[in-house]
Design a protein that fits this description.
The complex is a heterodimer of chains A (about 110) and B (about 110). With about 110 residues, chain A is an all-beta fold. Chain A is built from no helices and eleven strands. In chain A, the strands form two sheets. In chain A, strands 2, 4, 5, 6, 9, 10 and 11 form a seven-stranded mixed beta sheet that branches. Chain A has a four-stranded antiparallel beta sheet with strand order 1-3-8-7, with no helix packed on it. Chain B is about 0% helix and about 55% strand. Classes of the chains: A mainly beta (about 110), B mainly beta (about 110).
Chain lengths: ~110, ~110
């Protein structure tokens, strides 16, 4: 089954404790991206990767890092999480240069 | 002013009704238009994808784009309780794969 998977699905952590959210896709897509979704603000892009060699910032990259060492995986790293990073996070992969994007099930992160 | 405006609802309709969901946008460079459906606690699911102006039909769903008015619509015919979800419009300009700009979503409930 073609899909984007994320782990963990739910995470509660404390301020400053480094964490990684994994993302993997099995559709052989070049394009991958991370979004956060907050009430009233919709989906906002954090980082994207056009391919293994190209990664760039989205609209809200502060406090986040990403890594694209292989095509199928695109982990999101929070080096020192803060409460304002409490959100619902989605990974997406895309065909047609990212024009068609397929989303993972989401990771609900709470930082206390 | 946001680039993409979408009425958040909530919108409640009886089963069998025709539903009209809309987005307006300000960026005349947008060429690609998408509708996503998001069930509670799930990731957005691509529903419709259209390029430039015109209509596209897929089963009970019809997407319309009016670029002259910077207005897009999604019509759902014979609505079902299973259509209850949040509907997100998204759009991007040609050649700008990363800039998928989302509306904030409209919450729809179809009452049996």
């Amino acid at each position: 089954e073609a899909q984007v998977t994320q782990n963990p699905r739910y995470l509660i952590t404390v301020t400053g404790k480094k964490l990684t959210v994994t993302c993997s896709q099995n559709m052989n897509h070049e394009y991958m991206s991370w979004y956060r979704q907050d009430p009233g603000l919709g989906l906002r892009q954090i980082y994207y990767s056009m391919n293994v060699e190209v990664t760039d910032k989205g609209d809200v990259p502060e406090g986040y890092k990403v890594s694209r060492k292989e095509k199928r995986n695109f982990p999101l790293i929070l080096e020192s999480p803060s409460p304002n990073q409490t959100s619902l996070y989605f990974c997406a992969s895309g065909s047609e240069g990212g024009g068609l994007q397929y989303f993972g099930p989401g990771t609900r992160l709470t930082v206390t | 002013q946001k680039e993409v405006e979408q009425d958040p609802g909530p919108l409640s309709v009886p089963e069998g009704a025709i539903v009209s969901l809309n987005c307006t946008y300000s960026n005349s460079a947008f060429q690609y238009f998408m509708w996503y459906r998001q069930y509670s606690r799930k990731g957005p699911e691509l529903l419709m994808y259209t390029y430039s102006s015109g209509n596209k039909e897929d089963g009970r769903f019809t997407a319309q784009v009016d670029k002259s008015s910077k207005y897009i619509s999604l019509f759902i015919r014979d609505s079902q309780p299973s259509d209850s979800a949040t509907y997100l419009c998204a759009m991007r300009s040609s050649g700008s794969a990363r800039q998928l700009t989302f509306g904030s979503g409209t919450q729809l409930t179809v009452l049996p």
